[in-house]
Structures are given as structure tokens and as C-alpha cells.
Amino acid sequence: MRSVFKYLPALLLAAALDFASAAPIKPTLPCERPAYIFGGSQVLAEGVRDPGSNDLATRMKTFFQRVCGGDVRLEVIAEDDGRLLAATAGIAERLAAGQRSIALIHYPITDIESGTSVDALLQAYRRILAACSKSGSLCIIGGQQPVNAFTEEQTARQLDLERRASAEFGSNYLPLHRYFESESNPRRLMRWFDSGDGRLIGDLGHELGYLVYRRRLLELTGAAR
């Protein structure tokens, strides 16, 4: 039952943001910019009962359409179990060479799972954010997510990465681990958000992820309601 009480803030956040979005939004959201979501299996909606409806990417596209109208250019660029380290060069090249854009970068599991060091991931973040700065783009790098099967060492790397990235990159880094960790054991994924395998998040996890990303996006663009 204690986990229910930890979940209440997420429910309250969802209710508050949904209430706010029911009224007309007058944002400074740069609707003329193309938008991208880069990531791996979670961006591809693995673990969701109704892909194309309840997943993070679909929810975000619906939000952009509601705010900006029907001409939204939001492209999802992802591959199953993709790693950020392998994708960094392509992401940086696209963001640096293109026009001003909006980008969400969501790789919450696979790099730590494959043994990537915190220093290597921080360097990848620096390269991506330097490319964003070069093109005047707005970028949000998403943080880590608990996995039940992770060892203490893997979880320690996740938490060290969250701490160091938050300190270095400020609002361009979105620490996610604390939203999804179990109250009884921070190494474990909270069961409310678990798709059932202890690794991928389900529908409620995608809803919470969407709400947290949306809140940060609105903070960075100074959107007014």
C-alpha cells in the first residue's frame, strides 16, 4: 500500500496538467520548428498494451498537434534496444546541420545495461548539446530508469549519471530515475509502471514519462496558458 502513496504525486501531476491543457494554450512553443524523438525500444512503445495510442511518442505528437495545429513535423527516430553511444554521431550531425529544432533524447536503459561508463555517456551528452547549441535547437536529454535485473553496480552507475548530468546540464537534462523507482528498493521499477518484465514500462509509465517531458518542455519554452 505504501507504493500507492508514492504514486499519488504522479496522479496529481497528471490531473493538474490535464486540467491546464483543457483550456486554450497560448504557448511560446516554437511550432514552426521540426521536432524529433530519438531513442530505443521504449520510444517504439514496447511494453505498451495499445501502441499508437498510449505510448510516450504518440502522446507527445498529440500534444504538439493540439498546441500547434495539424502541420506538426514530429519524427520518431528509434531502433529496438538502440544505444545512445552508437547513435550519438548521427543525432549530433542531424541537429547541428539542420534548422532550429526541438529534440527529446530518450535512452533510459540500454547503455548502462551494456556496460557503458558514466564518463562516456556524459561525453555523448556534451556532443549532442553542443550540436543543439550550434543550430539554436532546444534539446532535452532524458535520464535513467530502474530495471529489476540490474546489479547494484549498474544501478550505482545510473544514479551517478543522474547526479552528474543534472549538475552539469541543468534543465537540458531530465532526471527520470526517481519518478520510476520503487519506494522499497530504488534498484527496482515501481510495479505501477512495470509492463510485467521488470524492464519495460507499461501504459502508466509512458503516461508519466510524457507528462514529465511535457512539463520540462513547457518550462524551457516559457509556454503560457
Strand order of the largest sheet: 2-1-3-4-5
Q: How far apart are the termini?
A: 36 Å
Q: Could you estimate the helical fraction of the residues in percent?
A: 40-55%
User: Beta-strand level of the residues, as a percent range?
Assistant: 5-15%
Q: Which consecutive residue ranges, at least 5 long each, have pLDDT under 50?
A: 1-8, 15-25
Mean pLDDT: 86
**Could you describe the largest sheet, including whether it forms a barrel?**
5 strands, parallel
Q: How many strands in all?
A: 5
Q: Give the helices and strands as they follow along the chain.
A: HEHEHEHHEHEHH
Query: Which structural class do you get from the secondary structure elements?
Result: alpha/beta
Task: Identify the overall geometry.
Answer: globular
What is the rounded Rg?
17 Å
* Discrete helix count: 8
